[in-house]
Amino acid sequence: MKRRFWWGMAQLGVLVVALSMGALAQGSQSTRFSGLLNDYSPASVSGPWEVRGEWSLQLNGNSGKAQFSAVLTMERSDEGVLLNGGGDFETGAGRHAHTHHITLRDATVTALPNGFRVTGTASVAGNGNPPPNFDISSPITVDITGGSIVPYANIHLSFGAPASSHFGSLAFSGVVQNVKNDD
Predict the structure, then answer these.
(1) Is 129 left (phi over 0), alpha (psi -120 to 50) or beta?
(2) What pLDDT, in 10s, does the model give residues 15-39?
(3) What span, in angstroms and rounded, lies between the C-alpha atoms of 73 and 36?
(4) Residue 103 pairs with which residues in a beta bridge?
(5) I want to staple 61 with a disulfide (CB 3.0 to 4.6 A). Which of 4, 28, 36, 95 is the partner?
(6) Is 157 inside a domain boundary?
(7) Residue 25 included in any domain
(8) What is the pLDDT of residues 38-49, one digit of tens each?
(9) CA–CA separation, 150 and 68 (whole Å)
(10) 42: domain range?
(11) Cα(26)–Cα(14) distance, rounded to whole angstroms?
């Protein structure tokens, strides 16, 4: 009789621990978003530049924090080459093709009526180095929005000063391709 009592208490203890760990896991569940950016910068920043690349974002459960990263290629559009590039349409050098890696850690998440916004100070690299014409740190804003059919459909990425001197102050638009909850 005592053995059954203690065995029952042990099973109850395991159940309590399992349930409390499940509750902790749900509270710390993260959601991962990923997709593509494909847009143009304004002509006012020695462009227009064609801007393309992949991005990813991770919401850290209910913490109100997120991580964001993007890898972008930029090259002058045909108009950008005519206005600023010397007329060489055939080479990457003529279009001033280059890359950017953007990383945002421990960013703040706020709700929007049709999605959410992530803000913080990002590090920005140009061709794997500090950018030649602006500081490595710059504020960015990432808006993830959608509608009634696709709740997370769009991304808008915008840069504050000093990076806005290169990227422009208008948001780059793109698409959310994947949303995954980490279980």
Answers:
(1) beta
(2) 333 333 343 344 569 999 999 999 9
(3) 12
(4) 69, 123
(5) 28
(6) yes
(7) no
(8) 999 988 888 899
(9) 21
(10) 30-181
(11) 18
